[in-house]
Amino acid sequence: QVQLVESGGGLVQPGGSLRLSCAASGSISSINTMGWYRQAPGKQRELVAMITSGGTTNYADSVKGRFTASRDNTKNTVYLQMNSLKPEDTAVYYCSARIRDTRDYKWMDYWGKGSLVTVSS
User: Fold this and answer.
1) Which residues pair with 91 in a beta bridge?
2) Helices (H), the chain
3) Whose C-alpha in 10, 33, 41, 87 is 20 to 30 A from the C-alpha of 74?
4) Over the stretch 70-121, which tens digit does the pLDDT of each residue have?
5) How far, in Å, are 63, 67, 104 from residue 71 at the CA level?
């Protein structure tokens, strides 16, 4: 069984910073891309940032220059450093990872349960 668990969400004032973490655990053989998505109230889930196993990143235009994704492959963990936060960044942030497990060695996409980030004064 593979699990992704996010942490680090909360309430922050506009212009502030937060760091999200997402740890993958369980019967993991290997991890390919890891990433972050978000879903604001009344909106569809959207990609925020992706990072490959080699460290190549891709960001949504709305967060470029403010958010930074990184990962620690030794800990099966991905991070999202969020700076200069805006009220429109308010959303539930979901971690996602493409993982091959040790049972049948098939690649599958796994999701965390989400972490709420609220940007408000």
Assistant:
1) 117
2) none
3) 10
4) 999 999 999 999 999 999 999 999 999 999 999 888 999 999 999 999 999 9
5) 18, 14, 25
